[in-house]
Write a structure and sequence with these properties.
The protein is mainly α. It contains nine helices and no strands.
C-alpha cells in the first residue's frame, strides 16, 4: 500500500515539474549546483604580413660596360691662359722645367697672359736654361711687356746670360728694348760698334773668356 502511495507521489511531482517546464521553456536545467556557462569561440586574428623591403637601387650600367668617374668640380671664371699657368705651377716638376713649359705656351697667350707668364718664367728659370728665351726675344709677335721683363731680368744674371741676351736684343731693329740693350752692352764692353754686328759678336765672345 505504501509503495503505491510513493509511486503516486512521484507521478504527481513529475507532472508538476513538466507543467512548470512547459510554462518556462527558457529556464536552464540545473544539475546539482553547477550551471555551465556557454563558451564563446575564440577567433584568432591573422598576423599582419610585413611589407616587403625596398630593393636597393643599383645605378644603371653604361652601355659600354664601363663605369664613369664622378665629375669633378668645374672651374669657371678663369681665362684659358690662367688655367694653363695655374696647371704648370701646380705640377711637381723642377722649377726650371716649369718655366720652360710656360715659355712654350707664351705664343698662344694674349698679351696679358704673356705678361703674367713672363713674371713666373723669370722667377723660375735657371741660369743654365735662360738662353732658351732668345728665340722668344726674336719673335716680333710677342707682347712688349713680355719682352721688357725677359730682357730686364737678364741683367740680374751672370755675364754668360746677360751678354748674349743683350746682343740678340740689340740686333733687332724693332725690338722695344733695342736702345736699352745697345746702351747697356756698350757700357759692359766699353765699346760701341754701331751696326757692326760682327765686331759686337767678337767683343761679346772675348768678354766671355775673361774670368
Amino acid at each position: 500500500m505504501r509503495s503505491k502511495k510513493t509511486l503516486f507521489a512521484l507521478v504527481i511531482a513529475l507532472l508538476g515539474f513538466l507543467s512548470w517546464y512547459l510554462l518556462n521553456p527558457s529556464a536552464p536545467i540545473t544539475v546539482g549546483s553547477i550551471t555551465p556557462e556557454p563558451s564563446t569561440p575564440t577567433i584568432n586574428e591573422p598576423s599582419p604580413i610585413p611589407a616587403p623591403e625596398k630593393a636597393q637601387e643599383t645605378p644603371a650600367m653604361p652601355k659600354n660596360g664601363k663605369t664613369q668617374p664622378a665629375p669633378g668640380p668645374e672651374r669657371t671664371g678663369f681665362a684659358p691662359w690662367e688655367l694653363k699657368i695655374d696647371e704648370a705651377l701646380r705640377s711637381q716638376a723642377e722649377h726650371s722645367t716649369i718655366a720652360k713649359v710656360l715659355l712654350q705656351q707664351v705664343p698662344f697667350m694674349p698679351p696679358e697672359g704673356q705678361h703674367a707668364a713672363a713674371q713666373h718664367i723669370t722667377n723660375l728659370i735657371a741660369d743654365k736654361d735662360y738662353l732658351d728665351v732668345i728665340p722668344y726675344i726674336q719673335n716680333p709677335k710677342l707682347a712688349d711687356a713680355f719682352q721688357e721683363i725677359v730682357v730686364s731680368e737678364s741683367l740680374n744674371r751672370p755675364k754668360e746670360v746677360k751678354l748674349p741676351v743683350l746682343l740678340a736684343t740689340a740686333r733687332l731693329s724693332k725690338h722695344p728694348m733695342k736702345e736699352t740693350a745697345t746702351s747697356i752692352l756698350s757700357v759692359l764692353l766699353d765699346q760701341n760698334y754701331g751696326t757692326d754686328w760682327a765686331k759686337w759678336e767678337a767683343a761679346v765672345q772675348e768678354a766671355l773668356k775673361q774670368p
